[in-house]
Amino acid sequence: MKFSFAAIFAAAAACLVSAAPSHPVEQRATPLAKVYSSCTKNNTVALTFDDGPWVYMYDISKALVAAGAKGTFFVNGNNYDCIYEDNGKRVKYLYDKGHQIEQLDLTTLSWDKIHDEMWRVEQALQRITGAYPAFMRPPYGNYNDLVRQASYIRGQSLALWDFDSGDSIGSTYQESEAAYKALVNKHPKNILALNHETEETTAHKLVPYVINLLQSKGYKMVTLAECLGLEPYQSVQAPATPDPSTWHC
Question: What is the 8-class DSSP label of residue 232?
Answer without folding.
Answer: S
